[in-house]
Amino acid sequence: MILAAAEMNLTQFEAALEGAGYISEREENIAITAFLAVQLGKPLLVTGAPGVGKTEIAKALSQVFKAPLIRLQCYEGLDETKALYEWNYQRQLLKIQMDKENMREEDLFSREYLLARPLLKALLSKERAVLLVDEIDKTDMEFEAFLFELLGEFQITIPEMGTITADQPPIVILTSNMERELSDGLKRRCIFLHINPPTITKEIRILSAKVPELPAKLALQVARALAVLRENILLNKMPSISETLDWAKALLVMGKNELDPAWVKATLTLLLKSKEDVDTFEREMGAERLLSKMPPARGEGHQHDRGK
To answer: CA nearest 223: which of 99, 307, 143, 150?
Structure first.
């Protein structure tokens, strides 16, 4: 049975998130912060390095509430005609040509002639949607200010028509890779959540959930190796969780049961995505040293936190 947001308590919400494939740890406060954002009807602003699971929160919430996911991918130069709406000028022109004598200006500026873009689609949705505004930090301050009305009141004003208010206010998730500082106005309208790179324990849980056939020993070694890599080398692009999963699957395909220097080196480009980062790794660490720096396992290795 799918529970509505208002019927769901925190324990049920945490279980539903995990059931949707989103793994988090209680001390991260990811589930409780997302829960409060949903319950309070506030947008959730999620920051963190690329690949830590920001976008996945929106996808998981879409599954939890069986809500359509509407995504606005931000980029430099994005404006309201691509994000909110534009008029269907061809249909308007056709209408004018067909009925010149009886045509009134207000007839041309109605919902019939609107081409809804992601933001307006989320407001007009007959069922509650999940609106993902992904990488908001790629836009400029002007675009942020344009969002204030939607984020604060779940409505937008179209000069030719007036104000459109959502019948079913969407669950709004904004993500930022922290490429620039966001405005106080945007932050004030949102509940804030920052996600750090995963601990060893969390990455093992993710590997177990996403690649269940991976041997426990190899899952532990992969998670420990990624922790060493993230903590000891300054790369242009740190390996994300998705790249960890790709690496684990590749090792599995090759029939590996444990890491060794030769296979680390052979599969390194599944983790590092530029020649500069590969060169940095080889110069500052190398496969042998990476494995030697991995923290020793204690017990089964599933209960300890990230190695230092």
So the answer is: 307
